[in-house]
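Slack export, channel: ligand-projects

TW: morning all. Re-posting the request from yesterday since it got buried. We need the structure predicted with the small molecule present, not the apo form. The ligand is coenzyme A; the SMILES is in the block with the sequence. No rush, but it would help planning for next week.
GE: picking it up
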Amino acid sequence: MQWVILQAREGVDDHQISIVLREAFGSPGEAQLVEKLQLCDCFIPELSLVAVRNNQIVGYLLLTTIRINPNQGDSVQSLALAPMAVLPAYQQKGIGSALVNAALIKAIALGYRSIIVLGHANYYSRFGFRPASQWKIRSPFPAPDEAFMAIELADGSLKKVAGIVEYSAPFFELE
Ligand SMILES: CC(C)(COP(=O)(O)OP(=O)(O)OC[C@H]1O[C@@H](n2cnc3c(N)ncnc32)[C@H](O)[C@@H]1OP(=O)(O)O)[C@@H](O)C(=O)NCCC(=O)NCCS
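GE: finished. pasting the full token output, ligand included:
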């Protein structure tokens, strides 16, 4: 099966992205989250990615900026990977993996140094994500240790970056 990973076109792809998120998650929360994140200072258009097959959006992944250890002088910028989704009929074909790999490459090219994700440990570990507790990085949300993960985009970039993650406001409004 052929598809391409592209930057989402602002205002043009929103409806199809919303359908992908609603169908994959089975509820409207993540689609509403993306609508809010698109209006946030944390939004980076280059890191809003779609998987396209035959002119149809079949997958979506968003990276937005967050800060780690916001109450300390050495607060560090990072990225949150959330949400990501593939239309149910197109899952298990490598599209999700292609989205994550493209996101990693783009984030590195833009100079970002780490990514945080709260998700399926068995899935994200294959891309190099490890429990964030390894760096003493903590979630502001209740989360199993193995599900709250981080990846360094440059060697040692999370060394000495301990603390709690500060997500942008829309994440706290997720239903
Ligand atoms: C998670 C998701 C984006 C993966 O997309 P995908 O295109 O199916 O992923 P890929 O084809 O690249 O990879 C499939 C692999 O992911 C694994 N996987 C899918 N969902 C998983 C889950 N919930 N937990 C653990 N592994 C999962 C599959 O078992 C498969 O493993 P295999 O390669 O060993 O067979 C997709 O299943 C989805 O949209 N799920 C619903 C929304 C969701 O849960 N998003 C992620 C929130 S953290």
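GE: first-pass observations. The chain has a mean pLDDT of 95. The first strand starts at residue 4 and ends at 7.
TW: perfect, thank you
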